[in-house]
């Protein structure tokens, strides 16, 4: 364990001596401080007297004033020479279209940018005032220019005098060409057609005039591929209507061209029709039914439906086939299938989904002999002959009740000679088909020899 330090006790005589020593040191410190105070006071009195003699002496007064003026000037300029002036700001006003000043009826201008960026410089309050105004314009003045290539500098209008407007870019190289006039035939197109009920169709419009005049430079006129009148169709239209169609010119890429069209609007009359046709819905199995089975019969809850669309398109539609993979038919069954509409058919009624009930039976075969072979897709200028017989045997496969009902006249066997363009003898594949989709058709001989003779 550490030993405790013993406290030293001073005697009364020691304490008296210590007090005397402290008192002597205090007196010495007080005397030293008094001497320093006297010296500082003397220095400032001397400095004050020296400055008085310097500043208020007529001999040195002008020199002192000059020195003070120089010091003040340098101080203020170093801090901010414009400390009392208003601080200017710069703000972008956005993009502005360029106003052309030129006779647009006589000249075509190319090379001007679509828009330019405008920046305002001035007092912040003045700039805010400009933003609330709509009178700012960027102008390309070309009134004194003729045909050719020119550099045009942009100017601004509508800004107060205390605000400077900076335009970027400030100029552009433009090409000025003299305009000429050419006549064009007018086509048409409908806008917003899908807003109509799909059961309605629009006929070709009756236009007041079929031609317009287009005014532009010769180079631009040569680029025009077609001119169209765009006819706007109002929503919910169900009957004939009249309107004015706006006319536009387009280049070969379908891009709208900036040209003068006279007139630019044409009165049109449009007939609204409701073409429709009733067609049969038929089953079209593809592939082979497993387990030696075939479709004996089927029934559809809507065997006939009404379709709507363009009248000329409807003429070529005889039936609506519903295709199903035959490999999925392993027993009698009922299925629900959608009706796939051909392109251009806009609507089907009463439903686009039908329920089909299918009945299967054992598959049988049957041969039909002496089915005539016909030439198809003959090349112009050639006559074709069969080297051997011009008939063949077709094997039918299907349910017994189906194939027994098929006659020779229900079959079609063709030899496609579209690839033959020289005289000679060729082997041509045969194609077979039948009216009844529930049966399959095969040929005992799938090729035939054909002689091509050039017509004289």
From TrEMBL:
TM ranges: none
Top-rank taxon, per record: Bacteria
Matches recorded under Gene3D superfamilies: 2.170.120.30, YbbR-like domain
Pfam families: YbbR (PF07949)
Record's protein name: YbbR-like domain-containing protein
Organism: Amedibacillus dolichus
Lineage: Bacteria, Bacillati, Bacillota, Erysipelotrichia, Erysipelotrichales
